[in-house]
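Amino Acid Chain and Its Fold in Token Form
===========================================
Structure side: the spatial fold of the chain, written down as a series of whole-number tokens.
Position: the record begins directly beneath this header, with no further notes in between.
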Amino acid sequence: MKTRSRIGTALAAATLIALTGCGANAGAKTASADDFPKKGKSIDLVVAFSSGGAVDTAARLMQPILEKELGTNVEVINKPGAGGQIGYTQLTSAKPDGYTIGATGSPSVVVSPLDPARGAKYTRDTFQPLGRQVIDPTVIAVQPDSPYKTLKDLLDAAKANPKSMTASTTGLQTGEHFALAQIQEGTGAEFAPVHFSEGASQATTAFLGKHVDILVANVSDVTDLTKQGKARVLGVMTSERAPSLPEVPTFKESGYDLEAGTARGYSAPAGLPEAVTKKLEAAIQKAIEDPTVKEKMSALGLQTSYLSGDDYKQFWAGQEEDFKKVLPLVQKKD
């Protein structure tokens, strides 16, 4: 197959190419960071998905390092629902004073403002990116006793009998939903999406309970499931095999030139004072690149791919342009 996802290309390129920084935001407020954060005042880290998933796990690994660097408590606040939209709304509605930051993941945070039907109250410009942490490739998994032993077996069956098998996503227009659309466009295999808007843990629970046939997830979501023999991963949607799943072939190795994944990082409401921005960015970089955090992330199948706040902002803008071109694929009625 010669079809290649623009999204996948952008994600792969981002792991290899250092983007040029765009400098501090024009007109940013000037303020001293000496009194930030104020003694006894905690910082909320909003996670737009439920506890137990990859986004929540990464935030909680970062939490103690952030507390050490910032000298105050950092509280992880889970606000799941609407494919991340509830949490992102809370984040961007907060006062831009540095006391509310949040985990941001694409495609969900990028795409929801692009579709008028979603009614998002935020845009890319209402976020202030502080740093990217990881790119987490998409995978396709089946039950351990599934009759489908290879990716080709599964996709051939889904092509022969469209929508005969259900497949999980973490919500409308999320990474998994886009991946299913890419698979349909590139191979003709069509699954019936089932959207679990509270995140990966909800989708995984449904899969383990055999309420959906196919688990569409990220590498980090299935690493432990594979070790425990609870899922059989048939393919990884990236150009190289995932270090935590070395025996699983890529889509390309199976004859399908398709790539997809989720980029995750941290942001604040737009309009932070410049000095506060720099202090938060430094703490986030320190936490992301902490050897212990990286080691634990790697064990979970999460490969660190740090970008500074300015570079993450440029990466985000590039993704927005790419997703605009394929948005119609996930706006069709399932």
In short: The domain at 6-136+262-330 is CATH 3.40.190.150 (D-Maltodextrin-Binding Protein; domain 2).
